[in-house]
Structures are given as C-alpha cells and as structure tokens.
Design brief:
There is one protein chain. By secondary structure, the chain is of the alpha/beta class. It contains nine helices and ten strands. The protein is globular.
Length: 259
C-alpha cells in the first residue's frame, strides 16, 4: 500500500493524460497501467471550453484521482493563478507545480518554484513540485512545506532515463522522510525499475507510454516494471562482489543431495 498526500493507493505509478493518438487509446492505456493518479493540464484541457469539457468527462470516467498541473507557466503569478483555477474546476487541493525557466530544456525555474510553493502551501494546497535533481533546491522545498518532491530523471519528454543517479541517490539519502517521485525523462520500463532500486517511492510518466508504438502494451510493461522495482527494493538485492562466487561450491556436497 502506498500513501501519498494522506490517501492510500495500490499503484506506485502516476501517469499523464497528454499526447495520446486518440481519447480511446488514452483511456485504455491509463487503465492498463494500473495507475490511480492521472495528471491533467488546466491550460491545455480546461473544463470550461467544449473540447476540455469532453476530455474532463473522459477523465472522470476513469474514477481515479486527478492531479492538475501548471504546465506551461513561467512566472510565480501565472503558476499561482493557474493552481487556484485548477482547485476550483477540478475540486482538489492537489497541484503538480511546474514553473518553467528554459524553453529548450524545459528546466524548472527553481527560484520561482520555491516561492510559488510557499504561497500555495499557505493557501492550503498539497504541492507536488516538479524540480531538478538539485539537493539544495529540494531542501528549500521541504523547508517551504512540501511533503512530496518530484525531481526529474532527465528533461521532460527526452526519454533519456536517469542521467544523474548520484544526485538522485544523494537526495534519497538526505531526505529519508520525504516522498520522492521521479518525474520526467523516463523512456523505458527499465528506467522505472531503476528509480525504485534507488529507493524512490513512485514514478510519474507520460510520453513513454503515449508515444509508444502501442501505448496500451507499453502501459502494461510499465505496470510490471514498477511492481518489479518496488518488490526488488523491498526484498533487498545481494551485495556486489569483486570476484566470482560459485552458486554451487566445488568442494563438499550440495545440501539437497545429502542423505
């Protein structure tokens, strides 16, 4: 069982709702993933317009938790305003906070991110901040009141996987009581498994499923990879050795052959 923002979930996978080739494939892929939290962009799919209203009805039909995001926002004011609109329209105090600082890499503006987090937390939001793998920024976000930190593995939509495992492992070690979710850059199921092997609590992905040749099958693959990574971490991997060690000793008799 997985607890996030006071709610319990079975799945450690969060999934996005953008970029799918059709609404039907989106629904099937999200269901196949087993995810119980789906991200939705207010700026791109607002329930106030006709197309957005139809999209919102599809999302509600999934009967899972919605995590609105501030995708596309570049200033504190813009992000805070969007978050307030999302709370009103989607009836949730959850917000995935994105404040983009660079159009090419889509790297977060971490200064604005911390400031916006403080404002929104004071306003009663549960903030899910999308940030870099910078430990100091993560510590400032925790100090601001964030209970969840969502560092990137690599730039959004790049599919490059976890580029700086040292930074991610350090963040996990230094923030043992903070919920950590790898958000952005995951391109393969093995990347998701690796995130859990590093000790992360969950992963959030979108492009890796939506842009696959078969999004539904890829969603199933990620579901299995997340479960494998989580169970593998809980089981405890064997220690790495510098030399070979035979699984069956060359001297003596294996115990199962003893009489």
């Amino acid at each position: 069982m997985f607890t996030i923002a006071g709610k319990k979930f079975n799945s450690h996978l969060l999934i996005g709702s953008a970029l799918y080739p059709s609404p039907d494939i989106m629904l099937k892929a999200i269901k196949a993933s087993g995810a119980e939290i789906v991200t939705v962009s207010l700026r791109r799919q607002s329930p106030e317009n006709e197309a957005g209203a139809k999209f919102w009805e599809l999302i509600k039909s999934l009967n899972i938790n919605v995590l609105p995001n501030t995708a596309g926002c570049k200033t504190v004011k813009e992000a805070v305003t969007t978050a307030h609109m999302a709370r009103e329209l989607f009836d949730t105090n959850w917000i995935k906070l994105e404040v983009i600082g660079d159009d090419y890499t889509l790297q977060p503006n971490t200064f604005a991110l911390v400031e916006a987090s403080r404002i929104l937390i004071e306003d009663g939001f549960e903030v899910f901040p999308y940030t870099t793998d910078d430990l100091v920024v993560a510590e400032y976000l925790v100090e601001a009141g964030c209970k969840i930190i969502m560092p990137w593995g690599s730039p959004i939509g790049s599919g490059q996987g976890l580029l700086n495992t040292f930074a991610l492992k350090t963040m996990r070690k230094r923030l043992p009581d903070t919920l950590l979710v790898v958000d952005a850059g995951i391109g393969k199921p093995s990347h998701a498994t690796q995130a859990f092997e590093l000790g992360f609590d969950a992963v959030l992905l979108n492009s890796a499923v939506a842009l696959a040749e078969d999004p539904v099958v890829m969603a199933q693959a990620f579901r299995a990879a997340v479960e494998a990574g989580r169970l593998g971490k809980e089981a405890g991997a064997m220690q790495v050795r510098n030399m070979a060690s035979p699984s069956t000793p060359v001297s003596g008799t294996p115990f199962w052959q003893q009489v």
